[in-house]
Amino acid sequence: MTATRPFDTPEGLVTTAKSTVRVIDGEPSQGGSTWNVPVTPAGAYLAIEQDLDGDMMRRVAYVTVPDVPAMSYSELLFNRGNGEGGTEPYWWTLASSGEFPPEAIDGDLGIDPVTGDVWRYNA
């Protein structure tokens, strides 16, 4: 996980240095403790990469962390908006060009509110 830009939190500065977290049986931990992620301010995202059993590293998503008591790892992966994540594709409001923002991930949907056109994002 890497922050797209440094930002301050009450606990200290979050930098753009890479942080490694282990996810076992859906539970993320760091150094044997529960993984706590600071709330991201407007304009900052966390880039998450997954290494599946050492086979390959791939960027999964740019996510925002809302100010909520807890989220599952799956909810975090689907949280590119301002609210809590979920398991359904994220809907983006797009202009007629159909261009998705950089934080979109495979399977997200985009809609042009004027024409009603819908696009599916594929990286």
Characterization of the model:
The chain has 123 residues and is mainly β. The chain is built from 1 helix and 11 strands. A 3-stranded antiparallel sheet has the order 1-7-8, with no helix packed on it. The mean pLDDT is 76.
Helix-strand blueprint:
Elements: E1 2-3, E2 7-9, E3 12-14, E4 22-24, E5 27-30, E6 33-34, E7 46-51, E8 57-63, H1 73-77, E9 91-93, E10 109-111, E11 118-120
Parallel strand pairs: 9-10
Antiparallel strand pairs: 1-7, 2-3, 4-5, 5-6, 7-8, 10-11
Number of helices: 1
| Rg of Cα set | 15 Å
Helix content: under 10%
How far is the N terminus from the C terminus?
Answer: 19 Å
Structural class: mainly beta
Shape: globular
Taking strands numbered 1, 2, ... along the chain, how are they ordered across the largest sheet?
A: 1-7-8
Helix and strand element order: EEEEEEEEHEEE
Low-confidence stretches: none
> How much is the average pLDDT?
76
Q: In terms of quaternary structure, what is this?
A: single chain
The counted number of beta strands is: 11
Portion in strands: 25-35%
Main β-sheet: number of strands, strand sense, barrel status? 3 strands, antiparallel
